[in-house]
Amino acid sequence: MSHQRGTESTGADQSALRDRLAALRGPGRQPRPLDSRALTALAANPGCSRRALLDSAGVDKAALAEVLGAPANFGQSQFAFARGHAFEAGATRDGGAELVRLLCAHTGQAPPDPQLLECPDLTAEGPEGRIERTREALALAQARGQTGAEGGPGGWSVLLHPMVRLTVAGAPVCLEPDALVVDGDGGVTIVEIKSFPILDGSAAPTKVGAATRQAAVYGLALEAMEVRAAESVLLVCPKDFSNLPTAALVDMRKQLAAVRRQLRRLTRVEELTAALPAGTSFDLDLPPDRLAGAVDSVPAAYAPECLAGCDLAFHCRSQARTGNDPAVLGRGTRAELGALTTVKAALDAAHSDPPPPEPSDPTHPAGPSDPPDPAVLALRRAARLRAEVLGGDGAAGADGAGPAGGGPCR
Ligand code: SF4
Q1: Among residues of the chain, what percentage have pLDDT more than 70?
Q2: Could you say which DSSP state residue 32 is in?
Q3: 279, 308, 330, 381: which sits with the fewest CB atoms below 10 Å from its CB?
Q4: DSSP secondary structure, 136-162, as one string
Q5: Pick the CATH number of 78-263 from 2.60.40, 3.30.450, 3.30.70, 3.90.320
Q6: Closest C-alpha to 173, from 56, 260, 74, 80
Q7: Which of 37, 39, 48 to mutate to test the pocket of ligand 1 (most atoms within 8 A of CB)?
Q8: Ligand 1 centroid, distance to 46 Cα (angstroms)
Q9: What atom of ligand 1 comes closest to residue 41's alpha carbon?
């Protein structure tokens, strides 16, 4: 599979691609916008053409999974949603003054005079209008800051819910960071507001990692606008068990490099659409079996991690199980299995007899010419140990429920 970007598309190419993706969604269906969370999940599995195509086409994967009979039930409860909104409203009150205070507390900068803090209105018609308005406001805010760098006090600005754009796999994606703070020197800091708490100065590493990857996606989008953001994101969260905001500055250089690399590896959408069978459609009004056929015609790269981040996870897992795909065992195990490309092949190998010792061969005094597959040796050994632990008769199969793989463990 080719993963490298080619030359940039022309406007006509982009328009043809948009039409093609709209046709895949079905007549009259609006594209479902990608947020940075979805983009981060997409970047985390760059080998999955299925997700790349469905996300680029703006297909509602949650609704698709529902029609396929395999809903994932992601999402927050109404209560958590309302609490998150209330927290964000509090953290961004007074035109972002609290965000500036939190940032200064971590960088050591002197907080600006409230008179010198601006929160520009970023409302505009449609995503294109909002992106343009963000671009103008950002340029103006940086110019205000740079004025200060030349002598007088620089003006600070907080851009709440700006809109930026990133080209992903050849298709443009609109993104909405929580906030950008432009300081008195014209420096830009990305702000991520999250509802998980910072308890006693630390937060769940997986959540911090996910938030930092999201911020890295915004960082790349800003780079595409020729704006270089600070290398650390200001992560704003509730303090302990209260609803008061506290913050941490988190270095996102590693995440920036990783997301940049992963996004580059995505196959271009043009290549994915060109490989589709004629008449493929993901229109949610189609009968489920036709939709399943369309979905399954696009190669997937299922891994257990999908269960935490993709609406189609149950569908893809079931397909992988039916196909005996060892990917269901996890990426690490799949890699260890090497040339054993099905679960059945791995079980057969585990229960296979070692080859008889070769008769001495004067031309090959050192023994067999083909060294045994280390994965097969490891599986045989694991099966033997398992049989010993279970009492030596090896009666239980690989799933612990009975004989498996065509024979007892040895
Ligand atoms: S669940 Fe399926 S579509 Fe989603 S990322 Fe995994 S393999 Fe791809």
Answers
A1: 86
A2: P
A3: 279
A4: HHHHHHHHHHHHHHTSSPPPEEEEES-
A5: 3.90.320
A6: 56
A7: 48
A8: 10
A9: 5
**What confidence category does residue 300 fall into, taking pLDDT thresholds of 50, 70 and 90?**
very high
Q: Which of 181, 21, 160 lies closest to 104 in space, CA to CA?
A: 181
Q: How confident is the model at residue 172 (pLDDT cuts 50, 70, 90)?
A: confident
pLDDT tens string 46-72: 889 999 899 888 899 999 999 999 998
What's the CA gap between 97 and 102, in Å, rounded? Answer: 9
Give the domain ranges of the chain.
11-75+276-322, 78-263, 329-389
pLDDT band at 15 (very low <50, low <70, confident <90, very high): confident
| Predicted local distance difference test score (pLDDT) of residue 309 | 83
**H or E stretch covering 195:** none
Question: Could you give the 3-state DSSP secondary structure of residue 15?
Answer: helix
Q: Can you read off the two tokens belonging to residue 337?
A: 């299995």
**CA–CA separation, 44 and 40 (whole Å):** 6
Tens of pLDDT, residues 137-167: 999 999 887 665 455 667 899 999 999 999 8
Q: Which residue has the higher pLDDT, 100 or 262?
A: 100
Give the Å distance between the CA of 69 and the centre of ligand 1: 15
Q: Any residues with CB less than 8 A from the CB of 377 and at least 6 apart, and which?
A: none
CA of 302 to the centre of ligand 1 (A): 5
Q: How far is the CA of 259 from the centre of ligand 1 (A)?
A: 18
Percent of the chain at pLDDT above 90? 55
- Higher pLDDT residue, 247 or 9? 247
DSSP state string for 330-363: -HHHHHHHTT--SHHHHHHHHTSPPPPPPPPBTT
* Ligand 1 proximity of 310 Cβ (cutoff 6 Å): yes
pLDDT confidence band for 359 (50 / 70 / 90): low
- Higher-confidence position of 174 and 236: 236
Q: What is the DSSP string of 65-130?
A: HHHTT-----S--HHHHHHHHHHHHHHTHHHHHHHHHHHHHHH-PPPPPGGGEE------SHHHHH
Nearest CA to ligand 1 atom 2: 316
* CA-closest candidate to residue 87, choices 248, 239, 246, 238: 238
Ligand 1 pocket: which of 74, 302, 321 to mutate (most atoms within 8 A of CB): 302
> Does residue 355 register a pLDDT over 60?
yes
